[in-house]
């Protein structure tokens, strides 16, 4: 496998590091967590738990029993507390060890499964006959964290120099890590373009599993904090545009008041973009309008409450003087519509079809709640919005509800997570707060 061609740059200055997507500490950067730096030791932990024997674990790892024992002692020393009980039976995992074993097992499985799927794609593409299963096992067994973190950084930043700056190393080091990763994986992972270094299809297939594996280890570091007297953690939540603006702020406010050491990051975007980030573990959950049809099989949805849309405009809109009584009476006006392919757009079109009307043809497709409110207050346009979403604007008189009945205008608001994911403590606590706020909303309805 040839080199990955990244623009040559001098070694980057040693600075304080830079967070990766949405503020999570980058692997190998300061603050990235003990576990992210101990991938080899984690393999020893998983092997000892799985085989219930240091000797058998050593055999499976092609190491000596003393090397396995040293690896476990090393990670326990870094963590500051034991993971195993020493007895005549050997090493028996304690609660911290069992928790770490679960997360590390999931991380290593992501690496093996991700390589298996990406490599199978590569084999289908070039027609070569190679052992996919053997390659997957070897990849998970010997890949290193510097190789994985360099892969993620370059894929996200599109530049070896920027990746080196994030990871506080030289650009030649990034180059060497990627060359080693390509040789180990047996695939070409990057291609050079005028816009920068970009992933190949094989590299893209590998990226999601690698990021999920690193996410598992970052979450394990948070979970193990309580065993060492540390209370910290992070949660990244994505908010769908034009969904309830009351639910998430209320839940987050309750959460951070109870857990002062928890860092919460909120991002937004379109449904398709956020689903990709959820699959890559860039976000822990998505909050907003749920899909009714075509829910991706790897996504789990939990409905929290039903939200009913109403026709909304500015108070002085001409339709109030014309005494509009049906949706059909409003068809001559300009409408604001959600973006195509989103749950909000599906609901928008469904409401008109339920009234026997063709959805209006509009020139303005809007993805931002703030922009929608601004366009409504300064024009004669109409939109379908939730009264909960614009509660303050309705109270202040900036916007008003047009009193026409609508059919099929109810949508479910809730949480979307990965079906195979195990949420972090912070994410689980946010889910509980979302449920509590939703229950209060239903009770006050």
Automatic annotation (TrEMBL):
Q: Which PROSITE patterns match?
A: HTH_LYSR (PS50931)
All residue ranges annotated as the HTH lysR-type domain in the record: 37-94, 143-200
Checking Pfam families in the record gives: HTH_1, LysR_substrate
Q: Which InterPro entries match?
A: HTH-type_LysR_regulators, LysR_HTH_N, LysR_subst-bd, WH-like_DNA-bd_sf, WH_DNA-bd_sf
List keywords of the entry alphabetically: DNA-binding, Transcription, Transcription regulation
Please indicate if the UniProt record lists Zinc-finger as a keyword: no
Gene3D superfamilies attached to this UniProt entry:
Periplasmic binding protein-like II, Winged helix-like DNA-binding domain superfamily/Winged helix DNA-binding domain
Q: Does the keyword DNA-binding apply?
A: yes
**So what family is this one in?**
Belongs to the LysR transcriptional regulatory family.
Protein name (database record): LysR family transcriptional regulator
State the organism of origin: Paraburkholderia podalyriae
């Amino acid at each position: 496998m040839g080199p990955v061609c990244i623009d040559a740059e001098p070694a980057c200055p040693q600075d304080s590091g830079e967070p990766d997507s949405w503020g999570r500490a980058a692997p190998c950067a300061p603050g990235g967590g003990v576990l992210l730096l101990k991938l080899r030791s984690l393999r020893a932990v998983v092997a000892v738990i799985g085989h219930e024997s240091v000797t058998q674990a050593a055999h499976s790892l092609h190491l000596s029993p003393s090397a396995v024992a040293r690896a476990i002692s090393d990670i326990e020393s870094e963590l500051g507390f034991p993971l195993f009980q020493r007895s005549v039976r050997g090493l028996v995992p304690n609660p911290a060890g069992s928790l770490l074993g679960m997360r590390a097992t999931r991380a290593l499985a992501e690496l093996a499964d991700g390589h298996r799927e990406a490599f199978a794609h590569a084999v289908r593409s070039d027609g070569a006959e190679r052992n996919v299963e053997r390659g997957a096992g070897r990849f998970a067994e010997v890949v290193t964290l510097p190789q994985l973190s360099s892969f993620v950084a370059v894929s996200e930043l599109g530049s070896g120099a920027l990746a080196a700056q994030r990871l506080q190393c030289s650009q030649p080091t990034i180059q060497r890590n990627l060359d080693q990763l390509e040789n180990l994986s047996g695939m070409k992972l990057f291609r050079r373009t005028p816009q920068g270094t970009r992933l190949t299809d094989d590299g893209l297939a590998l990226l999601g599993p690698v990021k999920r594996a690193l996410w598992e280890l970052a979450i394990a570091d948070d979970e193990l904090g309580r065993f060492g007297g540390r209370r910290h953690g992070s949660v990244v939540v994505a908010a769908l545009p034009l969904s309830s603006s009351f639910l998430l702020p209320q839940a987050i406010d309750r959460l951070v008041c109870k857990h002062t050491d928890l860092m919460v990051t909120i991002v937004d975007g379109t449904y398709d973009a956020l689903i990709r980030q959820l699959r890559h573990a860039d976000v822990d959950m998505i909050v907003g309008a749920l899909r009714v049809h075509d829910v991706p099989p790897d996504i789990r949805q939990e409905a929290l409450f039903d939200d009913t849309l109403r026709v909304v405009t500015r108070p002085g809109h001409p339709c109030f003087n014309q005494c509009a009584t049906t949706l059909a009476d409003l068809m001559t006006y300009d409408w604001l519509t959600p973006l195509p392919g989103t749950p909000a757009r599906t609901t928008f079109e469904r409401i008109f079809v339920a009234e026997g009307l063709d959805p209006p043809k509009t020139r303005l497709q809007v993805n931002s709640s703030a922009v929608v409110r601004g366009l409504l207050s300064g024009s004669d346009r109409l939109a379908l919005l939730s009264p909960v979403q614009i509660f303050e604007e309705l109270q202040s008189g900036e916007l008003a509800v047009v009193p026409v009945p609508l059919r099929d205008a109810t949508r479910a608001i809730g949480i979307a997570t990965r079906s195979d994911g195990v949420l972090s403590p912070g994410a689980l606590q946010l889910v509980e707060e979302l449920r509590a706020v939703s229950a209060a909303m239903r009770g006050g309805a």
